[in-house]
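Q: Sequence in, structure out?
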Amino acid sequence: MERLQKIMAQAGVASRRKCEQLITEGRVRVNGDVVCELGYKADPQRDRIEVDGQVIAREQHVYFLLYKPTGYITSVTDPQGRRTVLDLMKGVGARIYPVGRLDYDTSGLLLLTNDGEFANYITHPRYELDKVYEAVVRGRIDDTALRKLREGIMLEDGMTAPAEAECLASDARRGISTVRLTIHEGRNRQVRRMCEAVGHPVMQLKRVRLGFLTLDGLKEGEYRALTAAEVEKLHEKNG
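A: Exactly. Output:
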């Protein structure tokens, strides 16, 4: 059983707030009876729900993995008119939204879905889903900086959890290093701020893995649907 406004929103009727308004205005019926209570719960699989006389159908949950390029906003819309990740999701045929975020200048693995509960637990730090990034940073990173990243960094919004940090390569001539960082949190621009705090600003950043999911088989800007087995495995991980 779920709240009526949640069922309506998931079916694509309108936003959750607008659905609440439709209920209080007496425009919604469940099994023929008008419902005006916001706390009312229904079974979307068994109950007949009508809005202004039109029966709504529960939206089928869909799950996609996108290889996000740089230069796209991780949002459904952007008031400044910049390109969003939904511009890359042509032909999906469902009202989807990003799970978490990647910065405008960050590329890599991004999930999109219309399953709100799935999105919530994927992004919640208590589930400790690995988020693996490869960062090209300025300077030759040393063991001291790597140790600090592994132990946690004090940022303006508090101490970060310990991370896994590994130097993949250093280029003395160009004065850069490539670092792999594994974190479980999802703070705003966290990897960039952590690297900046140890004296190695990020020049390029890509998320290469989320849990067991990788970018294998995809080029920048391409996406694929998650398999049923992958979705089930994510639910098991976070259930």
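The CA atoms of residues 6 and 130 lie 29 Å apart.
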